[in-house]
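Comment thread on ticket #2218

A.B. wrote:
> Attaching the input chain for the structure job we discussed in standup.
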Amino acid sequence: MKPTSYALDATFAALADPTRRAILARLATGEASVAELAEPFDMSQPAISKHLKVLERAGLISRGREAQRRPRRLEPRPLADATDWIERYRRIWEGNYKRLDAVLQELKDRQRRTVDALVDEGKPRPKQKRRTK
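C.D. wrote:
> Ran it. Output below, let me know if you need it in another format.
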């Protein structure tokens, strides 16, 4: 399924914050509770909860339910969609750079031929033996 513009916007907006990226990195190792996610950060639990809401709205994480515990887990689909979107543009730019490399190589070759021709012009020519009849 092709991601909507809103879904991509939400994913990139969520990824723009280093705290949210750190939370995603932690969840890549397995699910965790809000308290576990908040532990490495010097911020209140309500602040962490706000970050988690942004990640949930973007679809990057989901909330489970195990008795009293509500662990968060990483949802890979939005990251895969963002990767696919970036990959399309990476291929375009890679093609552009390959064409630029070819143009630059042609300019270098042309410059080398010009310099070689000038150097050859400046060299004294060997004297030709006169033909006698």
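A.B. wrote:
> Thanks. Noting for the ticket: The helical segments are 5-15, 18-27, 34-38, 45-57, 76-122.
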